[in-house]
């Protein structure tokens, strides 16, 4: 079938968009990953140049919403410098949303949650892994996939409690001394983060 | 005379080989970081989808290119694709502007689209790339440029010899709302509950900004990887060419040397035979 596609493409003198598919057959499941309207508009304007790929072509498509609640939650926890957890099946995740700690179970309603600095814990069976996240976003999809994208996250055992106390004292002092709006905002952020760290370590 | 040429070609070969080694070692370091950052934009694309054919009034094309040259054709491909993309997205009542990261892209774009360039940023790689730097950059761009849709063009690093031009489309919060109301790919965005005390538009605003910085971070890293890989292969082919040139020059050198020796010998022999007989 691939040979037929290749022949067809070559005969019509088209760009070698067809030949690119075998190279990506491991990444792309089907043609829907390529936006047809875009490719057509592109071909009208620049027929000799191959259209650029879009991120959808590089991503494995997500499964559709199952009719019954699945048993486990699939979690993706990504940071700018590494994917901390990718496609791991867990029982529950507790995320620090701006409204407080939010528990996510399989079958949770689709939600977009903004995160504040706080404790993130992943529960699988009896094992609990705790991280302190600085901030970010969490998306809970209807098919029991949860994506958490954070700017910075540290496993709790790598945080030094004495430094946290010191930081908290520093920033509280800075807050009382702050003069301009910007200094006040920065000091307030420092106080928030450190008190959240404190709470995460003790609680 | 041929000897001078041979000396300079040998020097060129050494230099290009050294550049290739340097690029290879830098590539190893950046490649691990790039692959780790690949997970970063996937949540956003899973949530919001990617709609390169979206129809909006203000398009801003962010072209990621390199500062240094000698890296093969990747910068020209980026520029070619941006110009074609500008044509695709242009039309009545629509405007397209450019934001260019990197010297090489700026040089090529300034030549014919000087008026459409909104912002140029260079010397990105002076310090090793990190997320904070890119976040500040994204903040800059968001503050200074008005857009309905942002398209980031970069070379995605597929392997050491293959780089794929890629375009990531990001929508502004207002455009996201419009698209979700219109249905289609973003149609089920409304089914997502918004957790938190803020309104949907505020959350969308933060989301769009975070998405931009994440996607830009990944784009810059991938482009840096592609640049190093392209430089490696360009230097490799040029050192191979220098080697071949050196071989040919050595042959001509030997031939001329042997020819001059032969002429000397024949002169001596004919002179000696003339004296004898």
Report on this structure:
- The complex is a heterodimer of chains A (203) and B (277).
- Chain A has 203 residues and is of the alpha+beta class.
- Chain A has three domains: 2-58, no CATH class; 73-157, ATP Synthase, domain 1, CATH 2.60.15.10; 159-202.
- Chain A has five helices and ten strands, in the order αααββββββββββαα.
- Chain A starts with a helix and ends with a helix.
- Chain B has helices at 2-37, 42-48, 74-89, 103-113, 131-144, 173-182, 200-276; strands spanning 58-64, 95-101, 117-121, 149-159, 162-171, 193-195.
- The model of chain B has no long low-confidence stretch (mean pLDDT 83).
- Chain B has seven helices and six strands.
- Chains A and B meet through helix 3, strand 1, strand 2, strand 5 and strand 8 of A and helix 1, helix 2, helix 3, strand 5 and strand 6 of B.
- Strand 5 (111-115) of chain A pairs parallel with strand 6 (193-195) of chain B.
Offer a quick outline of the entry.
Chain A is α+β, with helices and mostly antiparallel strands and 203 residues long. Chain A contains five helices and ten strands. Chain B is built from seven helices and six strands.
Largest interchain contact: A-B, 46 and 50 residues
Measured by DSSP, the beta-strand proportion of chain A falls in 25-35%
Largest sheet composition of chain A: 5 strands, mixed
Helix content of chain A: 25-40%
Give the strand tally of chain A.
10
Q: Mean pLDDT of chain B, rounded to whole units?
A: 83
Key attributes of the depicted protein:
heterodimer; A: 203 residues; ATP Synthase, domain 1; 3 domains; globular; disordered N terminus; B: alpha/beta; five-stranded mixed beta sheet; 7 helices; transport (chain B)
Topology at a glance:
The complex is a heterodimer of chains A (203) and B (277).
Chain A: H1 2-11, H2 17-23, H3 36-45, E1 73-79, E2 82-90, E3 92-97, E4 100-104, E5 111-115, E6 118-124, E7 127-133, E8 136-140, E9 145-150, E10 153-155, H4 161-177, H5 181-202
Parallel strand pairs in A: 1-9
Antiparallel strand pairs in A: 1-2, 3-4, 3-6, 5-8, 6-7, 7-10, 8-9
Helix pairs in contact in A: 1-2, 4-5
Chain B: H1 2-37, H2 42-48, E1 58-64, H3 74-89, E2 95-101, H4 103-113, E3 117-121, H5 131-144, E4 149-159, E5 162-171, H6 173-182, E6 193-195, H7 200-276
Parallel strand pairs in B: 1-2, 1-4, 2-3
Antiparallel strand pairs in B: 4-5
Helix pairs in contact in B: 1-7, 3-4, 5-7, 6-7
